[in-house]
Write a structure and sequence with these properties.
Length: 170
């Protein structure tokens, strides 16, 4: 996805920022432990989860990272704002802007659909056109159609993905 590779693109900035945040939790046992405690204190019924780091060579791992972050938003924010766990400058540096939380939430349905289509098509060594075309058509119709509620960044993302899929089909 060409524009995603550009570091000043809002989605790339978000991905980089979230990756730094997850990296901090991965390398700081105290923060990880506190994240697990916060999850239990906020919902005793749910099992605790760790954050997932994306892998640069697996594009769909961004979905996994964003999905887990969004699901753990409030425990993460609680840990970032706790000065017994995070130094003030660390908390401010790692704290997420509302735009990033919104962008991740907006991207999740499309990234999930892309992940599913990729998994289905990768399961076959040579997927047939009768398998590929309907999936890509439904992907375009159900997930990549731009609507008035989409932010500009999200609409641009949908346009970029649609163009890339069209090139594949040509």
């Amino acid at each position: 996805m060409g524009t995603l590779a550009v570091t000043n693109h809002p989605i790339s900035k978000c991905r980089f920022s979230e990756s730094r945040l997850v990296g901090h939790f991965s390398h700081t046992p105290m923060a990880t432990g506190e994240l697990l405690k916060r999850q239990v204190s906020m919902d005793k019924e749910k099992s605790t989860l760790k954050l997932i780091q994306h892998c640069k060579t697996r594009w769909n791992s961004v979905y996994d990272m964003f999905e887990r972050l969004v699901s753990l938003r409030w425990p993460v924010i609680a840990v970032l704002s706790d000065r017994n766990v995070m130094k003030l400058n660390e908390g401010k540096t790692l704290d997420k802007k509302d735009e990033h939380w919104q962008l991740m939430s907006e991207l999740l349905p499309v990234l999930k659909a892309l992940q599913i289509v990729t998994s289905v098509m990768s399961a076959e060594s040579q997927p047939s056109a009768s398998c590929v075309f309907p999936k890509l058509y439904r992907l375009n119709k159900n997930h990549l159609t731009i609507n008035e509620k989409d932010s500009k960044v999200f609409a641009d993302f949908k346009t970029d993905v649609t163009k890339k899929i069209s090139k594949l089909l040509d």
